[in-house]
Amino acid sequence: MDLIGFYWVCCMIDKRMKLVKPAILFQQALKRGATKQGRLLGLDVGSKYVGLAVSDDHCKIASPFSVLERTKKNIDIMAKDFQMLVAGFSLAGFVVGYPFNIQGQSKVDTVQVKLFIEDLSKTSVLDGVSYTYWDENYTSRCVETLLEPLDINPVDAKTIMDKFAAVGILQGYLDNMNRSLVSEDLDLE
């Protein structure tokens, strides 16, 4: 399935939360940024935890934020947490890490991301919130490599890894979108 077909299928599945193309979400954030903060929230969705990173109000830099525990039973609580973050940070939307290239990745990883977004959408708490998927390949592995030489408690290392994997996802997205914006500006000159 090509990328456009993937987005179309996702839009048909996720009627409550709005799946948008990466460039559209970035444009929404920049438009909001003209009048008020238009930040983005990066999500690294795992089977037990969701790492969170937040952008600055100029959508240039991603910073680690938090880790939420993920269970089937707490999806309503998580949705309300996200709702508070949307209001508190004036979020324009979510950048959700997604393993597009599934070589070496379990198909379970791709399914769990979709199910998480679908479960959030079903709560109706985040109606109208835009999100996009962004390639998360190697983000966790990069963070693992950075943490290996440090003598960090394994429990602490896991939360650090989840937060910084979210940073990697969001920063990759921001860098790509900002590069595209600069390229467009150069093309117009």
From TrEMBL:
GO terms for molecular function: hydrolase activity; nuclease activity. SMART domains: YqgFc (SM00732). InterPro entries: RNaseH-like_sf (IPR012337), YqgF (IPR005227), YqgF/RNaseH-like_dom (IPR006641), YqgF/RNaseH-like_dom_sf (IPR037027). Residues 38-143 form the YqgF/RNase H-like domain. GO terms for biological process: rRNA 5'-end processing. Keywords: Cytoplasm, Hydrolase, Nuclease, Ribosome biogenesis. This is YqgF/RNase H-like domain-containing protein. The lineage of its organism: Eukaryota, Viridiplantae, Streptophyta, Embryophyta, Tracheophyta.
